[in-house]
Design brief:
The chain is α+β, with helices and mostly antiparallel strands.
Length: 103
């Protein structure tokens, strides 16, 4: 069973226009808090797999800023771990398909 959900990015999400999908761990209601069902170790394995498969990535905000200012080309992937998030940002259907095949 997959332990993540895929969100197609629209204007409500940071990274809109720079990435197409967000992959984030599923979470469930615990005792008065929401608990991720994916551990930090598993999330780090996802990130390491993306680095090995797609090349170096960077924080989402850095990637969006640098892409916007034309200092770097569009990136295949990025991540966001600010404010308790555990999110991978994927650029296209190709990256999402490869991720789904692996995980």
């Amino acid at each position: 069973m997959k332990d993540y959900k895929v969100i197609k990015i629209d204007r409500r999400y940071n990274g809109y226009r720079y990435f197409k999908y967000i992959v984030e761990p599923k979470y469930q209601r615990g005792d008065a808090v929401w608990i991720y069902t994916t551990s930090r170790v598993e999330f780090q394995a996802w990130r390491e797999w993306c680095r090995t498969t797609f090349g170096e990535g960077m924080e989402r905000d850095w990637a969006c800023g640098l892409i916007h200012s034309n200092k770097i080309p569009p990136q295949s992937w990025a991540w966001d771990t600010e404010h308790g998030n555990k999110r991978l940002y994927l650029n296209s259907d190709t990256e999402l398909t490869l991720f789904k095949l692996r995980f």
